[in-house]
Amino acid sequence: MSLLNYNEVLTAQSQDARPIAPSSSISIIPDNNIIVLPNHLLYVGKTIRVTWFGQIWLNSSGGANFQFSIDLGTAGSTNVFNFLSGPTTAVTPLNVWTPFLVRGIFTIRTQGTGTSSTAWGIFQLCGIAQVGSSIPTVGGVSTSLIPAGATAVSNGFDYSVANWFNIRLNFGSTTTVYQNLQYVLEALN
Amino acid sequence: MSLQTWEECLTTSIVDGTANTTGTAASCIPPNNVIALPSSYFQIGKVIRVTAYGRISCVVTTPGTARFQIRSGPTSGVSIFDTGAINLNIVAKTNVPWLLQAILTCRTIGNGTNCTFMGCAQFESEAIVGSPAAAAGGNSVLVTPVGVPAVGSGIDSTVVNQLDLWFTQTVATGSMTCHLYVVESLN
To answer: How do residues B49-61 score in pLDDT, each as one tens digit?
Structure first.
């Protein structure tokens, strides 16, 4: 019983990424981990699991909204999954690093040129930096699902060309800092 | 150090399952993703991971409950893992996402109903009772089965068995659609 394929790790981060405090979208992973997927790799049914983990630093009592995105395309310039706001909280311990974990999975639904390739995906964010979260000594940390609202297919991309695979982040505040520590990209088939 | 096995993806859905709005139990995945596993496929220690994601709606005040079952047997008639009834949010929700991640390990094998699995699943959604809105504090998470963990109903591992995901929402005022369904064999 098999499709005669196997799981494989496409890339894994082995060093800390640089700390970033972006007010515009910027890559969170080390440059060496921005891999180039060959053309036609993302065919219908291809399933990808992505996991990244890092630390976040709030030094503003106002907190900040942050927004991850998964980008494909030449130079990773095509925004495919644009995470809706993942608001940090004003009551999270300030001026200290706190861990943050994102796990996601998506399956290619359509394949084609231009923007006719699409995927369905779900992402789970977990960390005490999220609004409303307890701290570990009081209760579990908050998790949230992305998309946060109504579910929808991803933005379109071109599967017929080589696609960079990149993770970007945009903060609503430049006083917040994020540093990615772990990043694993797996092809499940 | 290895068992000389490998992980593999047994099936992944590329279309939505049929929306369940009836308040009755039914398969929620596309029919093409109901896979048939060969006889004697299950061995003691075999581990299966099921990941599913979709959208769910529930009405205010009397949302009923949601329940997932991983079913097997020659006609998917046996619930080998049951989340139990998950109380839904008494605040109306429309098409909010849900995520189900389950792991099953084969505990016993044999004919009749001797093949059993111990399972655990994590269900996350804004549609769980008590969950705040996404913008106010994330989504609630339940570790299921709701109640006391136990092995599911048994199947006959010596015959061909289907693997299916069923869903029940106890009221016909809700709706659920599965967008993504992935089954992995971990060994």
So the answer is: 999 999 999 999 9
Q: Is this complex's ipTM strictly greater than 0.85?
A: no
**Which are the contacts of B90, defined by CB distance < 8 A and separation ≥ 6?**
B60, B61, B62, B63, B129
Q: From the CA of B185, how many Å to the nearest CA of chain A?
A: 9
Q: pLDDT (tens digit, 9 = 90+) per residue, B68-89?
A: 999 999 998 999 999 999 999 9
Interface size, chain A vs chain B, as Cβ–Cβ contacts under 8 Å: 113
Is A8 inside any structural domain?
no
Q: Containing domain of residue A61, as a range?
A: 15-187
d(CA A169, CA A167): 7
Q: pTM for this structure?
A: 0.89
Residue A7 maps to a domain: no
Instruction: Determine, for residues B8 and A3 on separate chains, whether the beta-carbon distance falls below 8 Å.
Output: yes
Tell me whether residue A55 is in a domain: yes
Sequence-distant (6+) residues with CB within 8 A of A145 are A122, A123, A124, A125, B97, B98, B99, B124, B125, B126, B134, B139
Whether residue A138 lies inside any domain: the answer is yes
Which residue of A lies nearest to B141 if distances are taken between CA atoms? A143
**How many structural domains comprise chain A?**
1
**Which chain B residues are Cβ-neighbours of A1 within 8 angstroms?**
10, 35, 37-38, 41, 185
